[in-house]
Fold each of these.
Amino acid sequence: MESTAEMALIKGGVYTPLYTTDKTPRIVSSFLLDSTPVTNHQFLEFVKANPKWQRKNTLPLFADKNYLKHWLSNLELGPNVSPDAPVVNVSWFAARAFASFHHKRLPSVDEWEYVARADAHRIDATSDPEFTKILLDWYGRPNPKHLKSATTFPQNIHGIQALHGLIWEWTSDFNNAMVTGESRGDSGLDRNLFCAGGAVSATDVTNYAAFMRYAFRASLKGNYTVENLGFRCARTIPPSTESKKQS
Amino acid sequence: MKTILSLFFLIVLSSSGQQTMPSTETPSAKQKETDACCPATTQNVAENITAESLYNLTSEWKDQFNTTRTLLSLKDRIQVLTMGYTTCQYACPRLFADMRTIEDKLDPQIQDKVSFVFVSIDPARDTPERLAQYTKENEIEDKNWTLLTGDEESVQELAVLLGIQFRKLNETDFAHSNLITVLNQEGEIIHRQPGLLSDPTATILSINRIVD
């Protein structure tokens, strides 16, 4: 088992984020993304090498008390946790530390959403009601007791597995969504709470699946751990090596 | 749809909403040595910092005097802190005015126990020189004000801990939360004043309470 996932090259492109009133498309530069989320095994190797990220040593500021609670102990997964399943119950700070240890980083919301529009054949499948329906069906189901390995999931057109249908994932700037999470169109956002707050709200509420992801991110704090929230890592491609596939 | 969403938030709340208790365990000094990664999120074992203190962050910043410092240098005084950017035309001047209002309304006897911190979310343009210029423009060149600029990672990390959202809108502007946070002498968050032109009474009270 590898200590960190294989990365796939995501070819950059133009993308219109869901939550912005100026419909100016944004450019997502090419980058590398882990093809699968970080597994229990990989995270265990990380905490062995970085004792301060073991359950007994973390500060509540950086990881709440449910951090890695599904593991048997500090350094044991136990019989009920598959080493190949994605690690969950990890905070943003812990995810970020893992990424940094492997000279990677977390993907931004824009990067994640850019890739998440894809299915097996299309870079952007979000206009297909069937695609959105499959996601919503998953969102409506309770969490399974045992998470499957992401490698059992089909690859999307970028070669990425299990962005949908397995777990939710941390992003580097999850706190930048500017969605309060209370109202669907977010028109109730108190503008005094935000400088230029009016510039950031939904353009496409028909994409309900994406809306739920934004709302979920807005409900998180950096030390939260959730039993269906894990992460995968990304890496910036240095400008001179953009044409090469691997780092 | 609505049902799914409400149910969903319930799940999120129930699994993540509980606040944590301060840990009684402290990592040993030996563990600190083994840390190969993660420059910013490191525990200051030797400095006797409380578990809830923001001063557990070890990110490095530059102030308006171009001095490199960590947040730990803010310890032992009460800090009234906000994040913004100096070229902001809309809210930041008002946010700054709110900070001044708090400063003005403090009891003169406790003014020397309280400092004010402005952390930039725009490291590219808010250089130490620009921060120094900003203190002149706003006539806050006295020692009670610290203006800090750091790298994007450090800014992001601090914003997450404070619960401040921000997003770059274009080359010159950001959308960001308007939030003033009060830290006690240990660097723990004791009060938040959200919004612009808010009544500072509760903020002043929170400061008075910890001075006594």
Note: The CA atoms of residues 23 and 111 of chain B lie 33 Å apart.
Amino acid sequence: MITLKVNGETHSLDIEKEMPLLWAIRTEIGLTGTKYGCGIAQCGACTVLVDGKAVRSCSLPVANAEGKEITTIEGLSHNGTLNKVQQAWIAEDVPQCGYCQSGQVMAATALLNRTPNPDESDIDAAMAGNICRCGTYVRIRRAIKRAAGKA
Amino acid sequence: MTRHEKLSRREFVISAATATGGLLVGLTVPGYAAEFADQTWAADSADPREVNAWVAIEPDETVILRCPMAEMGQGTGSGLPMLLAEELECDWSKVKVEFSSVNRNIREHNIYGDQLTAGSRGIRTSWPYVQQAGASARARLIQAAAMKWNVPAKDCSAVQGKVVHKASGRSLSFGALVADAAKVKLAAEPAIKTPDQFKFAGTRQPRLDSPAKSDGSAKFGIDTREKGQLFASIMSCPVFGGKLVSVDDSAVKNRRGISHVVKLDDAVAVVADNYWRANEALKLLKPVWDGGAAAHTDSAQFNKAYRDALDGPLVTARNDGDARSVIAKSQHVVTAEYETPLLAHATMEPCNATVHLTKDRLDIWMGSQSALSNAEMAAEETGLKPEQIYFHQMYLGGGFGRRTFGDELRHAIRVAKAGNIDVPLQLLWSREQDMRADRYRPQSAIRLKGALSPDGKLEALYIQSVCGSIAMSTGRKVPDGIDGTALEGIGPSVPYNKVPNWYTGQMLKNTHVPVAYWRAVGGSQNCFYLESFIDELAHAAGRDPLEFRRSLTDRVDSVAVLNKLEQISGWGKPMPAGRGRGLSLVENHGAVGGQVAEVTIQANGAVKVDRIYAATDAYHVVNPNLVDAQIEGGAIFAMAAMMYGEITVKNGAVVQGNFNDYRMLRLPDAPDVVTALALTGGKDKDGKPKWGGVGECSVAPTAAAIANAIFAASGKRIRSLPLKNIRLTELASL
């Protein structure tokens, strides 16, 4: 059995220890906000927080996630209130197709948790792993600054 | 999530913005705002609360509006409901949008049009019937109230979700009128508004789908979870057109969770209770394929064949004046050859379809650009009647032309049929399958000749093009040898009307690699060619590229875009060494767009695109906020292809398989994009309001603008893409 703590809830799952965390979250636990994009940690669509750090869940075996605090996009709101990154995303109308945006929001959340006042190079470094095909980067940058209180 | 919780997300944003003192641009509607329905697809039976097929009013005055187009990021899912609301005169804050039913469209004789989301047509071809649906619903509600009050309908009006009789001060909400309104027979359909009468359409409004796409609740096709659902991963024959000879499935049959190994003529699939298990098992299979003669082809052969074919014979596609003679006699002829490769769509959401096939019904859950034609194809595949197909339209994780053909749906149906699978089955292409089983942007090569007069006027253009044909690749006939998509940007549709002699000849040339629509279609390569060459001609003539273009056109739209670009980009201001500015102007999918790129050539020869200015004339627009977003994103989408995009073929198969070898532009390399609209309004030749599309006109200008900026900065002319293949140190030494 594999025990995963996702968004504060504990799940005991009878799954292979090498199953990537992504597929445990999406299929076994049933939280579909975290997306599959490449399967090889190239695109960032599957980004979740593991102990507060942005991690590509498509390439993390569940065995390595046991005993850790896992947060998905569904776990960012508290008492129905979205976190400040999500609010900034809505205010700037960042999403287009929206498929990569869960991962983008998770990466930006991890950045602001670590660096509350990021400069341009901090934003570059934190967001370089997340591809957006619609090209929403201009608004992503703006939304991160808004969330950091710089807008 | 309940409606109240969803609405509170917008409400919170508003209050948060107020608390920090910032002005929140866009949220002009006080209080709650319109949103998309949680279940994105409309029910397949008529809602008892319908005024007509497009509008239903719930007892709590919630206004349900049906959107006939898919939402793949382009924003039509917000724009078309705005047009409906404009006519309906409803309370926008009570609007909930859902995708119109495909099954009803089949049964009720195309009441929702063709449901085809492609060609930047979302607004520009659907506004007449969408506006008519809203106006018709409004007229029925007014008529119902007038009958109740026994007053003439002309003395009543609709205002913010109510019908009002001004003389008596009476009013009734839409919700109270809906049952009577549905029974109203109008003597004549009401006239629709002209854009100058719009009060709401044309204003900057937030996207309806931003909240759901920021909190993970938006449901894409891949997110379908039906009871008892199984998951399939599939691998097609790597060589297009090839066959599966044999596959030994003994190694995977007994693996955990595997329920089926399904062999198709040209593919093999594994079905399991978890996609990962299916895909891991699929990777262990060693199928034997027969690729036929195509297995001996590669990109080097193709590239040479396209170049060699430039000498003809070509079919004349445009012939104004006598370009051949003018070129032959000219003292100053500029000649250049360009080429561009195949490109993959690489939508962020890999193609997928979920099907539930029973003996008298097929349910489909997916996001499609062409749900209606996909449903019709599904009927053929299954032998069911079209009205037995129930297509549940979901959000598309990118489209760009890929999600038109239903190839993934065909796979899902064939696997379900061959495997006798009567539970819901989700077939998901791995990223590698998605990239290697795509239908690609056509490859092409071109030779351009221009004749300049001694005083630097462009007297003639002579264009020889060899390009893949989408029509031929998708099984359509091209009896006269002309495929309009291959001519976009070099044929009749160009922003210039003052080039006296113009010849375009073309050969349509395909290989075994399938080709299809890719955002901006022919404009994705032809606008790069023509606009780079116009820049070459301007320099050869010793003229400023912007002023040179002005001399080629007096079209109102082209001039407006050039003027706006000049103004916003600071065109003509000196730039330091190593930096450059480049311009392009295009007509694409019914709009005119121009861009100015600013680049820096770095010490190591690498090109940094610092900023792109974009000016666009789409004549009329519904929501400038979303138009801006399309243009910002379109430029970056185009730049990714310009810098890195290249699909190559080896032994008949596509080499690239994932984002490690088919690179994308990432945030640190993305330029700032400054957008401006240059709307000239106006009417078309039939006297109807002119509408342009922006989803693709935003893409077509970018590559040439950047290439021309590189020339300005370095003196190096880029005539072949992608840029990654050009030794960048050459740039630094120039």
Note: The radius of gyration of chain B is 27 Å.
